[in-house]
Write a structure and sequence with these properties.
single chain, about 250 residues, alpha/beta, 8 helices, 9 strands, about 35% helix
Length: about 250
């Protein structure tokens, strides 16, 4: 039977790294999203009673467990959710990397960071995947990362790639999907993220002085296509995972 529990558990690593426009989709479908601010010391609750687990982005890296010790129980919870409980999972950026690491894959520094509005292409596996049904084979997305999945977990499928990053999206089993890129953005996303020192540094390194303003303008230009792609990915994920809207 389809899973109809209404609450979606969301692991966040910064208050401004939230599900963005995906929050609107959840509310419209009658789901409650429950954010857990791990960077602020919030404890991970029992996973029982949640319809799904979402894991958002953040400026930390998966291997920085000494600086961010909560990464260890977070990855354990991700592994339990996906491997043991078959809980529907959606990962964004760092959440994509955490899924890979939690399931036995590898994550490392990218040879060349990706920052800006850049192209992504579906792989052959992505062409056949229900997570990308109704999307274009090539699409532009917001990229903002200097680490990447360097080795897929055993049993995972790479669904999208880019010239600089081989694993832009992946699936594991029937109910876990994650993406390195960003389509969740709102009108305030770029300005809010640019205020974070680590992100601002990446911007200036990749785009030069004034990069934040330029990226904000470019993001506004692509906002409609980003939001349309976000809705399609969300609806594909929800349908594939058997989540029934409570409208």
């Amino acid at each position: 039977m389809p899973l109809t529990a209404p609450r979606v558990l969301v692991f966040q690593h910064l208050a401004v790294e939230h599900p963005g426009v995906f929050r609107d989709f959840l509310v419209a479908d009658g789901f409650e999203y429950v954010p857990i601010e791990l960077n602020e010391g919030a404890l991970i609750p029992a996973l029982d009673g949640y319809a799904a687990l979402w894991v958002m982005g953040g400026p930390m890296d998966v291997w920085q467990v000494d600086a961010y010790p909560w990464l260890v129980p977070e990855m354990a919870a991700i592994r339990t959710a996906v491997m043991d409980q078959n809980l529907p999972f959606l990962g964004f950026c760092l959440g994509h990397q955490l899924l890979a690491a939690a399931l036995g894959g590898a994550v490392g520094l990218a040879r060349e960071p990706e920052v800006g509005i850049l192209p992504v292409r579906r792989t052959a596996a992505g062409d056949a995947s229900p997570y990308f049904t109704g999307t274009e084979a090539d699409f532009a997305v917001l990229q903002w990362h200097s680490a990447e999945v360097t080795e897929l977990p055993r049993g995972a499928a790479c669904l999208a790639s880019s010239p600089r990053c081989a694993v832009q999206a992946m699936s594991f089993g029937q109910r876990a999907f994650s993406m390195q890129f960003h389509v969740e953005i709102t009108p305030n996303t770029v300005s809010e993220w640019a205020a974070i020192p680590a992100y601002h540094s990446a911007l200036e390194h990749s785009l030069g002085v004034g990069g934040a303003a330029a990226l904000e303008r470019a993001s506004q230009t692509h906002a409609a296509s980003f939001n349309a792609l976000a809705r399609r990915i969300y609806e594909n994920w929800r349908s594939t995972c058997g989540l029934v809207p409570r409208r």
